[in-house]
Design brief:
- The chain has about 160 residues and is mostly helical.
Length: about 160
């Protein structure tokens, strides 16, 4: 899906609802939203941890492939370096997620969950800014990524509150 004009929240939500890729990812696991909220905190932490590791490994090991996935077929050295940096960040978040998963300390788990909320909401804001102000060309999985990140932010906030 390609957007050529500023995107409103309503347009993005409708696009996510219509997107077959997002629905194909979500529906096998959550038949409805109430199933999502029946999940245990540890299961949510494990899912986000695995997602972080799956994003981080290709960016570290094969930045050319990761760059191509996001629409930049021939990246320069600075862009490859940025992919390596972001991959390292994702691996660190995955490791910290594993620590939170294994932890029985509520403060550790709540701290990690709140950091996921902050980082995913910040990523969404940066994407909207880049799309609407800098007129960045959206990559091929933008809608799916935004949908996953929105679910991660909402889920992390929910489980953060549940961990009180």
């Amino acid at each position: 899906m390609v957007f050529h004009e500023p995107i409103s929240w309503e347009t993005m939500i409708k696009s996510i609802e219509k997107n077959e890729e997002v629905c194909a990812v979500i529906k096998p696991y959550f038949l409805n939203l109430s199933d999502f909220f029946l999940m245990k905190t540890n299961t949510f932490i494990l899912i986000v941890t695995v997602y972080s590791l799956l994003l981080g490994l290709p960016a570290i090991v094969a930045p050319m492939i990761a760059s191509d996935y996001f629409g930049q077929a021939s990246p320069n050295a600075n862009e490859l370096s940025l992919f390596n940096f972001l991959g390292g960040y994702q691996l660190a978040m995955g490791y910290l997620g594993y620590v939170a998963y294994r932890s029985t300390d509520k403060a550790t788990r709540r701290g990690w969950l709140l950091s996921i909320v902050f980082l995913t909401v910040l990523a969404e804001i940066v994407y909207f800014y880049n799309l609407n102000v800098r007129h960045m060309v959206p990559h091929k999985t933008l809608v799916m990524d935004m949908g996953i990140w929105a679910i991660m932010a909402i889920g992390a906030l929910y489980f953060w509150n549940k961990e009180k």
